[in-house]
Amino acid sequence: MTLQYSTEVRNAKLDVVETTIGTGPILRMRTGAPPATCATADSGTILAECVLPSDWMLAASAGSKAKNGTWEDLSANATGTAGHFRIYDSAGATCHMQGTVTLNGGGGDMTVDNTSFATGQSFTVTTFSLTAGNA
């Protein structure tokens, strides 16, 4: 039998993600595929970087948690095609989360308004959410 959790447990598991990563985490958009794990060294070129809002995720509800506020960089660092993201602590030292990046409808873990970055252009994360399994 597969484990099943109550909605309250699933919500609590999701809310601890934001608590553990902390306030003001750093989001970095990078070229290429994500590394094997968050503990693996960074790969690809940093295309853009932004500090996320202090309260960067909404409170979990019904086993899901969505981004809160505006996630954007007004001036990209480099030119290239975004393939993955990494979210670090506020010091930018520890990677706590990573995933793929696509345009809306592209099936990535995070969707953005444009995956083709040019130095100096702005970008905005359009959707990002987490869902706890084992309902």
Percent range for β-strand residues: 35-45%
Give the overall pLDDT as a whole number. 96
Helix/strand-derived class?
Answer: mainly beta
Largest sheet, if any?
9 strands, mixed
For the CA atoms, what is the radius of gyration?
15 Å
Order of helices and strands: HEEEEEEEEE
Mind explaining what this structure looks like?
By secondary structure, the protein is mostly beta strands. The protein has one domain. 11% of the residues lie in helices and 36% in strands. It has 1 helix and 9 strands. It has one helix at 7-21; strands at 26-31, 46-51, 64-66, 72-73, 80-88, 95-103, 110-112, 116-117, 123-131. Strands 1, 2, 3, 4, 5, 6, 7, 8 and 9 form a 9-stranded mixed sheet that branches. Strand 5 and strand 6 form a beta hairpin. It is globular and about 50 Å long. It starts with 6 loop residues before the first helix and ends with a strand.
Write the layout of secondary structure elements.
Layout: H1 7-21, E1 26-31, E2 46-51, E3 64-66, E4 72-73, E5 80-88, E6 95-103, E7 110-112, E8 116-117, E9 123-131
Parallel strand pairs: 6-7
Antiparallel strand pairs: 1-2, 1-5, 3-9, 4-9, 5-6, 5-8, 7-9
Which terms would index this structure?
36% strand; 9 strands; 11% helix; 135 residues
Quick structural summary:
With 135 residues, this protein is mainly β. The chain contains 1 helix and 9 strands, in the order H-E-E-E-E-E-E-E-E-E. The longest helix is centred in the first third of the chain and has 15 residues, at 7-21.
